[in-house]
Amino acid sequence: MSLAAAILLGLALGLGAGVFFGELVAPLGVVGDVFVRLLQMTVLPYVVLSLSTSIGHLDRRSVASLAGRAGLVYLVLSAITLAVVLAFPLSFPDWDAATFFSPTLTEAPAQLDLVQLFVPANPFQALSESVVPAVVIFSVAIGLGLMSMERKGPVLETLSVLSATVSKITNQIIRLAPVGVFAITAKAAGTLGADSLGRLQVYGLAYVGLALVLTLWVLPGLVAALLPISSRQVIGPTRDALVTAFATGNLFVVLPVLTERSKAILEEVAPGDESLAESVDAIVPTFFNLPTAGKLLTLSWIPFAGWFSGSELSAADVPGFLVVGTASFLGSTSIGIPYLLDLFRIPADTFQVFLAIDNLVNSRFGTLLSAMHLVALGLLGACAARGRLRVRPRALIQHALISLVLVMGVVTGTRLLFEHVLSAEYMGYELFASMRPRFEAPVARYVELEDVEPDRPPAGSSWLAHIDRRGELRICYPRDALPFAFFGDHGHLVGLDVELAHELARDLEVKAAFVRMPNVGHLDGALASGRCDVALSGLVITPARARDLELTQPYLEHTLALIVRDHRRSEFASRDAIRALPRVRLAAPEIPHFTEKIARNFPNVEILTIDSPRAFFRDDGERYDALLYSAEAGAAWTFIYPAFSVVVPSATSIKVPIVAAVAADAGELRAFLDHWLALVRSEGLIDQLYEHWILGKAAEAREPRWSVVRNVLGWVE
């Protein structure tokens, strides 16, 4: 049995073991880790030795030719991949979308330090920390230095022997691939969650389809059109390396094998031409550090994340997206993806979704594509540098047309499949309405404001003592107070401040009664009359409220934002964009402190006061252009009205303190609340509620992975 067949068998057996035994096979991860570490052990030494030796053997003219022509081949392969990335959004069906608030809307974009990534101030530190681009620069510098040395023969011979030794060790380790692949696959299949991926299926199917088209047809077919070999002659000798790359999800560990297989293929193109092998030794490790096709295809996550969250890229964003995206992928995708999400104002929580799909799809099929990319680059780059390419226009045109048909077939087929066969109903409203409390809540009383009798403490007596005698804490909240207080589909009042109020009632050892007001305009009278003891509902500090009520210290901080229709996001993306509009009709709650400042800074803005956000969302666009609201609370409303998006204009970050309020003469109660809020904040309660209700991070215990032994045979609990 060939090594490639043995690896595929290990992959199949691993899948079977994972499905059958489930999480019981998790300990096999240790075997997989050992295998991957053994492969990694030889890679950096191989890069240093191979690059230093191959460049050291060359002269300056050869280096210039190799860099120029191989670089041109790299640009062509990258352009093909980026064209596929541009076609990727054609696979997205027309679905509504909404997401929870993301701090990305208010944070400054991350900065990518290319100098630190590529310039090795300490090459030994770069080696120890596996900073591959810096190691490559150091190795190239050593090679260039050797190139001009007169007595370099003995040094190059020693380095060549060491390089061959490392390569031999790698080939011996790769023989363990069937066992390593079995262990890695079994653990992945046994421990990864099997929950429905929803709209992620769109991305996964399109990515897998396009990655396979590029790997199995476009790249090897391009090599076959330019060299006197067939696609099978490209894929055949590299099968074991490709399968290992796919199974491990690690391109770095198969780098030496890819180089050796590429040299073996070139031996068939030009038997006995050692210069081709030397060129491959220089090209593959060097260009490995630039974004490969698999990495570039992962750029498709940015337009997908925009579609996923309802924050699509505009046509004007595309040129910057391609240029900045390619540059940001000079480093790791774990750095590049968050940077691009921040840059294009796409919710950062989609990065967590990316990590999940990356583990399932990108790290496998993307690595497979990257491995084939390096093979194609090594073959075409070496032959281009040595003048051995043969351009056949008819073959190239035929290959391009078939490639176009296959790519468009994948993207349009995916779209049609999910629009007409697997179409998904918008479930954002159901998702939000079905949210359960973060913590178990006791039974409470719900009542309308007009149904509550005034109940102030006697003059000179304590509000706290009065609440204790009554045995009930009355908490005011207005209608439409998402996500602080609202009735879910289960018929119970839930939300961030509702859970906070339940905890307050527990600590006071009384029951909770939630009093709903028609709007916040009734707040002063409700607190003064004793119909309510405290207001907890995402209440914003204003000078008027600070004058007329007792306000606690802030326990949350929100960001002032605009809510607009999806197609108008770009019109409100910055201060300058807003000022450029001839007229803006801005709906806003009655918060004069903020609306007056906006009116002073934006003469083209007309403020229209509303009692409830629903007045804006139910408008057909004829009366209001945007809604002034908090970004955190506004994100919750987009679940109910997915045709709208939250926008925080760039260069604008106005923080709004959120407080609790009590009656003007309830200073003792306010002082107690200040101390109590400080206590629960230090205990982490407010952070947990914020993550649950604002960021949407439900903290539910994960069920064990489905498996045959657990769910079918019942052999384990």
Characterise the protein shown here:
This protein is of the alpha/beta class and 717 residues long. It folds into three domains: 3-95 and 115-421, Proton glutamate symport protein; 432-555 and 664-693, Periplasmic binding protein-like II (D-Maltodextrin-Binding Protein, domain 2, 3-Layer(aba) Sandwich); 557-657, Periplasmic binding protein-like II (D-Maltodextrin-Binding Protein, domain 2), CATH 3.40.190.10. The strands form two sheets. Strands 1, 2, 5, 6, 7, 8, 9, 10, 11, 12 and 13 form an eleven-stranded mixed β-sheet that branches. Strands 3-4 form a two-stranded antiparallel sheet. A hairpin with a 5-residue loop joins strand 3 (486-487) and strand 4. Helix 9 packs antiparallel against helix 19 (393-421) and helix 12 (255-269) runs parallel beside helix 18. It is elongated and about 105 Å long. The two termini are 39 Å apart. The relative contact order is 0.11.
